Amino acid sequence: MATKRKVFYSFHYDNDVFRVQQIRNMGAIEGDEPVSKNDWETLQKGGSKAIEKWIEDNMSGKSCVVVLVGEDTYKRPWVIHEITKAWNDGKGLVGIYIHNLKDPKTGTCSKGTNPFEQIGLRNGKKLSDYVKCVNPKSTDAYNDIKANLADWVEDAINSRK
Questions:
Q1: Which of 56, 72, 113, 142 is the most exposed place for a label (fewest CB within 10 A)?
Q2: pLDDT value, residue 1
Q3: Prediction pTM value
Q4: Please, what sign has the CA dihedral across residues 139, 142, 102, 82?
Q5: What domains are defined for the chain?
Q6: Which phi and psi angles does 35 have, rounded to 5°?
C-alpha cells in the first residue's frame, strides 16, 4: 500500500471547521489537526510574525496544500498567504469546494469564489490557470471527496514536477 501523503489544509476556520473535520476524518491523506479557536486567538495576539511562523512550521514537510473552499474562503488573507507560499515553495496545490458538505449547525452553504482566481502571476496569468479547484458531486459530495481526494492530491503534486 502506498504511503499517505502529508498535506496542509487551508480553510476559513469560523465558517468551515466542521466541514473540514469531515474531510480529515476520511483518512485518505494525512493532514495537520486544525488549530483550535483558543490557539488561533493566542496566535493572533502574537501578530503577523507569529502567524507566519505557525504557517511555516506547519507547512514544513508537506508535499501539498489542499485549500478547502467554502463560501467566504477567498476573502481570508491568511488563506491567500498560504496559497501564495505553497505556490512559491513548489508544493502541490489543489482546491476543493466544500459547500455541499453539511455542517451540523448550519447545513450546506453557497459555493464560494475560486481563491486562485484572485492571485496574479508575473506572466500575466492567474494562478487558476494552473491550479485545479474541484467541485465534488452535489448529490454526494462526501463520498466523491473520499473516493478522489488522494488522486487529486497526487495530481496536484505531479503537476508541479
A1: 56
A2: 41
A3: 0.91
A4: negative
A5: 6-159 (3.40.50)
A6: -65, 140
